[in-house]
Write a structure and sequence with these properties.
269 residues; alpha+beta; Structural Genomics Hypothetical 15.5 Kd Protein In mrcA-pckA Intergenic Region, Chain A; 4-stranded antiparallel β-sheet
């Protein structure tokens, strides 16, 4: 399913467990499920998946504020989604890589490559995400040191608090210090829900604005807010190498999968 461009591998697993997948007329809800794509008829939400390989696509969107990072809004709501901004002819097979909060702006990757999406968002691969943050107040060295060491944040599971754990180390660079505000660049290798905002709130500095400016070696450039473009060959190759995938063979590269991150899933801001 991920190879067919349905969604990332983890999202495909959720689709199976929710009962949205049929194999040869029977609903499957438990993992693993072994199929032969050439022989078996596989439906997702009643629609057959593609059996022939499709061209892999990799788009960079400069996400604007007040935009949901999802394929569609909840029934009864009519908020703008990131996919409303994409007018690519293969839009129907694309999905966002991870999430950015409703009011967080900046770099969001859109693809139909489920394997790469999984590696970019799963903390065990440790692909860094870099954010430009403006906070209220003048940050002090002790707060920076605390961020860099890691901070205990509550863990959430099934919508409820499930203990707390220390975040992975954060790289912090002070870009600009003013009397009443500070501009920082933060680089994370995990992605808990609203992690950047929660980290800075924990050391006493509310976030005024938040923008993701990098994912791995790919930086936000050449695209205006609310616009998108396809990644070039160099960017795609460097992104795959950062995720531990041989860009020519598509196979896992040496050292891929090394545990470098902590808890977290989706690289949210």
């Amino acid at each position: 399913m991920a190879d067919a461009g349905v969604a990332s591998r983890r999202e495909c697993e959720k689709l199976i467990e929710s009962g949205a997948v049929e194999v040869n007329g029977a609903v499957v809800t438990t993992l693993p499920v072994f199929v032969d794509p050439a022989e078996d008829r596989i439906l997702v939400d009643g629609k057959p998946i593609r059996k022939t390989p499709e061209r892999r696509l990799y788009l960079m969107l400069n996400k604007p504020p007040r935009t949901l990072t999802t394929l569609s809004d909840e029934p009864g709501s009519d908020r703008r989604t990131v996919m409303d901004l994409i007018d690519h002819p293969q839009k129907g097979r694309l999905f966002p890589v991870g999430r950015l909060d409703y009011d967080t702006v900046g770099l969001l990757l859109i693809t139909n490559d489920g394997e790469l999406a999984n590696r970019l968002t799963h903390p065990k691969f440790g692909v860094p995400k870099t954010y430009r943050v403006v906070i209220k107040g003048r940050i002090e060295e002790d707060a920076v040191a605390e961020l860099e060491r890691g901070i205990f944040l509550a863990d959430r599971k099934a919508g409820q608090t499930d203990g707390a754990s220390r975040t992975a180390k954060v790289e912090v660079r002070i870009v600009n210090l003013e009397r009443d505000r500070t501009t920082l660049e933060l680089t994370l290798r995990e992605g808990r829900n609203r992690q950047v905002r929660r980290l800075l709130a924990a050391v006493g500095f509310p976030v005024k604005s938040l923008e993701r400016i990098g994912m791995g070696p790919v930086k936000l450039k050449g695209v205006a807010r609310g616009q998108w473009r396809e990644l070039d060959v160099r960017e795609i190759g460097s992104l795959k190498r950062a995720a531990g995938i041989d860009s020519l063979s598509g196979k896992e590269g040496a050292g891929a999968g090394k545990e470098r991150g902590g808890k977290g899933r989706s690289g949210r801001g």
